[in-house]
Specification:
single chain, mainly alpha, 5 helices, 69% helix, globular, DoxX family protein, transmembrane, membrane
């Protein structure tokens, strides 16, 4: 962990969010329910449960990547893909707002995507980020 790095607070926040979005579902049958009751029902059967576990497992692994600043660009790009697919399959039809003006919308995923892009491109999009 490098707390002096300019993206440390963002990486820490994303790591906490990913862990808290994953671990509880691993113990309360939420991951299996997501796979069986959602993914399988929208056409991913019989792969719904393995896909759900892959998503949640990646969140835990990538949380450590962000904390220890290892493979962060890979972790961020894959997480962005997962978030975009979440928008496409789950959140878009619910609108923009997560709460308030609606429910279960895209705004939180949008924010996480922008945070992950900031981690990938800490100097901005137009600068050399190698």
């Amino acid at each position: 962990m490098n707390p002096s790095n300019g993206t440390f607070l963002l990486r820490l926040a994303v790591a906490i969010i990913l862990v808290m979005h994953s671990i509880p579902g691993m113990f309360n049958n939420g991951v299996n329910d997501f796979g069986n009751l959602y993914l399988n029902q929208i056409g991913f059967a019989p792969l719904g449960v393995p896909i759900a576990w892959s998503i949640k497992g990646s969140h835990v692994v990538f949380a450590f990547c962000f904390l220890f600043q290892k493979y962060t660009k890979w972790a961020a790009w894959i997480t962005i893909f997962i978030l975009v697919m979440g928008i496409v399959f789950v959140h878009f039809k619910e609108g923009w707002f997560v709460v308030g003006g609606g429910r279960n919308g895209v705004e939180f995923n949008f924010l996480l995507i922008v945070v992950l892009l900031t981690i990938i491109f800490p100097n901005g999009l137009l600068k050399n980020n190698r």
